[in-house]
Amino acid sequence: MPIDGDDEVAMTWMHSVDKTPWWEYYRAVGDELVLDCTELSLMGAGTPFEAPRTELDGDMVRLCGLDEHFEAVRWIHSHRVHHRIYVNGELLLPTRAIDHHVHAEMIVIGD
Asked: For residue 48, is pLDDT > 70?
């Protein structure tokens, strides 16, 4: 799907242990995906702890200004944790669009 640096790409899933939602918000910069914010309800192993900006929204914590660069975001797609991808709030990739337990990746492809 064509996107530019102003577009927000969000990936979400349910944490497999505590069953709470986890959101990650990316933007495309050159040929990389840059993680700007993570939104979650429980903090623990693997969560960023030194975000430049932290906001509370109900029971969710939003950690922003992370500026983490990735050439690809890779995961094992699971129907049990409901992986989904949104672009500017519009569902692009519903959970069932990819088979269960497939190795998946999200990348930026240049012009």
From this structure: no
